[in-house]
Structure formats: structure tokens, C-alpha cells
Specification:
heterodimer, A: 95 residues, alpha+beta, Cell Cycle, Chain A, two-stranded antiparallel ribbon, 4 strands, elongated, B: 264 residues, alpha/beta, 12 helices, 42% helix, cell division (chain B), ATP binding (chain B)
């Protein structure tokens, strides 16, 4: 009955479009990532460049993936660190 | 020198063929020379939507295969001065035409017509690649549904990869009342997700079904809202700045009241 009244008065009754939008958003994250497999590779190369300024990392063991469950998608990176560079302290204090 | 526009969508059944027919008829009404190319080989449809199914002698594969001259295969629409159809083959499959043949065909048609509009088949395989091979511009048609918008997104990616930049979007079959109730994605929602320019919005309209039954494009129906929407899109293709149609015509009571006081 309440739903009927809401409909009659034009209030947000079902709001099922929000469900549609959310499902679409998630599915597109996957679609767009899989359409361009180079994307992850490019991201990986650029990440290495940035991180190497601060740390020695094991590039070959580096892993980057898009993980997802029902409600969210996450970029998960596993980056083994072999050692820290001394330059970090200079950067931190020197500015 | 004319321009080649491909009408595509990814998903089937969202209104590519209806859109192609109406844009063609609309542009011809403005005095342009227009040819519509049905690139859906094996599943020809544009001829019946235009009501020209009884006049086909030769088809696109006869032209590319050298069995007839281009001029012989073009069907002149007697109702719209300057409108022609190049029908698809019904008995061959999609490999009957190659992208290079399609490119050459488009080049030839461009010499003679102001607009070459290609009705692309659904899907992303060979038929799609053929249809976009000779195109200068692309129009993506979608409906406000998850599956259709998802496929539109995929198609936009593939168009960009094929260097067909800046495709423009037509949102078909929108139902203003459902949008108002939050039960259908709005124009803004879809544009927000797909991030491309909007060419037009066509409301759900029974007149489209009725006119398609008769084989007459709805664009010539002065009273229908979908006809108005297509006429607006035609003018935008010509480069005119036409404001988006106000879809929110209100409920029955407010429509009635507005009509009483002469507002609409």
C-alpha cells in the first residue's frame, strides 16, 4: 500500500536504477581492465620506476592483480623489498 | 565529398536498424543525398524497416563480387527524394565481404552521396569489423539497461582502438516515468558511465512499432515524440545546436491541465 502511494506521488519507490548502476559500475571495472591487458603491464612498469627511487625491490617477483568480491574491486600488489635506500631519509628531511 | 557514419551498438535489439532508417529518411528530407548500407550480411533487416523489401534485385555482395555495377544495386526510395538503400545479402555469411572491400565501397559511395550511413550488425566479430572499416564517424545506440550499456562500453573501446575517435551516443527507448520513479537509469547516469558525447535521446513510443509495421520511418510523423526526437538528432548531425527534448511531460493530470491552459 505504502509503495503504491509512493508511486502515485512520484517518490523514490523502487530505486532499482541504483542497483543497475552499481552492477554496471562493477562489471565495467572488469570489462575495461580485461579489454586492455597492456594496462596492468604499463601500470607495473611505472610503479617499479617510482618505488625504486626509495627501495630495492625484487622486480621479477612483483605481482599486481585486480581482485574482486561482490561489492568491491581492489588493486592488490605484492612487492618483495630487498632493501631500503639511504636516499629516503634525505628526501624526507631535505625538502 | 560525403561522410561515412556507422551506427553500432554491440548488443542486438536496441534499435540500430530503426535509427539508421530514421536518420537516413530525416537527412533526405533536408535535401541531402543519402545512402543507407545494410552491413548485416545474412540477416538483412533494413529493407523491411524501410518498406523496400520487394524491390531488391542485387545486394552488397553482388557489388563487391563484381556481379553488378554499384548503381544497379542501389534502391531508390520513392517517398524520400535523395534516399537510397544498398541491401545486405540474405543467403551469404559475414565473410562474404572483407574490410578492404568495404573501405573501397565507402570511398566510392562518398563521391556521390552527402551521407553514407552503415547499419552495423550486432556483435564484435567480422561483421562489426567490416561495418566500421570505411567509416569516418560512429554513432553508438544503447538502451537504459545494464546489458546494453555494458556492450556499448565495449564497443566504444573497440571503436577507439580502431581510431574511430569521439563516437556519439543515442539513448533509445527511455521511459521518462520510470526514470522519474528511480526505476530506470537516466540520461545523466548513462553519460556519466560511458563518458561520451550525447547525440540524442529517443523516448519509448508505440508509434515506432506502428510505423515499422507499415515500413514507414517514424521521423516523418509530425505528432509523435519519437519522430520529433529523430528530427532533432538529424539536425544535430547537420551541425545545428538543438537543445535536448524535454522528456518529462509530467503525469496524466498535469499534461491534461497544461493542454487545457494551452501550454503544450
Amino acid at each position: 500500500m505504502l509503495e503504491f502511494l509512493n508511486r502515485v506521488f512520484g517518490r523514490e519507490a523502487g530505486g532499482s536504477k541504483n542497483v543497475a548502476k552499481e552492477r554496471l559500475r562493477l562489471v565495467l571495472v572488469h570489462d575495461r581492465a580485461s579489454v586492455s591487458p597492456q594496462l596492468l603491464q604499463t601500470l607495473k612498469t611505472e610503479l617499479i620506476k617510482v618505488i625504486e627511487k626509495y627501495m630495492d625491490i625484487d622486480e621479477d617477483a612483483l605481482e599486481i592483480n585486480l581482485d574482486s568480491n561482490e561489492t568491491q574491486v581492489a588493486l592488490v600488489a605484492s612487492i618483495p623489498v630487498k632493501g631500503m635506500k639511504r636516499v629516503t631519509r634525505h628526501l624526507a628531511s631535505g625538502i | 565529398m560525403g561522410e561515412v557514419i556507422v551506427v553500432t551498438s554491440g548488443k542486438g535489439g536496441v534499435g540500430k536498424t530503426t535509427t539508421t532508417a530514421n536518420l537516413g529518411a530525416g537527412l533526405a528530407t533536408h535535401g541531402h543525398r543519402v545512402v543507407l548500407v545494410d552491413a548485416d550480411i545474412g540477416l538483412r533487416n533494413l529493407d523491411v524497416v524501410l518498406g523496400l523489401e520487394n524491390r531488391i534485385v542485387y545486394d552488397i555482395t553482388d557489388v563487391t563480387g563484381g556481379h553488378c555495377r554499384l548503381r544497379q544495386a542501389l534502391i531508390k526510395d520513392k517517398r524520400f527524394e535523395g534516399l537510397f538503400l544498398l541491401p545486405a545479402a540474405q543467403t551469404k555469411d559475414k565473410t562474404a565481404v572483407s574490410p578492404d572491400q568495404m573501405k573501397a565501397l565507402c570511398e566510392e559511395l562518398k563521391q556521390e552521396f552527402d551521407y553514407v550511413i552503415i547499419d552495423c550488425p550486432a556483435g564484435i566479430e567480422q561483421g562489426f569489423r567490416n561495418a566500421i572499416a570505411g567509416a569516418d564517424k560512429a554513432i553508438v545506440v544503447t538502451t537504459p539497461e545494464v546489458a546494453a550499456v555494458r556492450d556499448a562500453d565495449r564497443i566504444i573501446g573497440l571503436l577507439e582502438a580502431a581510431e574511430l575517435r569521439d563516437p556519439r551516443l543515442i539513448i533509445n527507448r527511455i521511459r521518462p516515468r520510470m526514470v522519474r520513479h528511480g526505476d530506470m537509469m537516466s540520461i545523466e547516469d548513462i553519460i556519466d558511465i560511458l563518458a561520451i558525447d550525447l547525440l540524442g535521446v529517443v523516448p519509448e513510443d508505440e508509434m515506432v512499432v506502428i510505423s515499422t509495421n507499415r515500413g514507414e520511418p517514424v521521423v516523418q510523423d509530425e505528432r509523435s515524440r519519437s519522430g520529433q526526437a529523430y528530427r532533432n538528432i538529424v539536425r544535430r548531425i547537420k551541425g545545428e545546436a538543438v537543445p535536448m527534448m524535454n522528456l518529462d511531460e509530467g503525469g496524466f493530470v498535469s499534461r491534461f491541465l497544461r493542454r487545457m491552459i494551452g501550454l503544450s
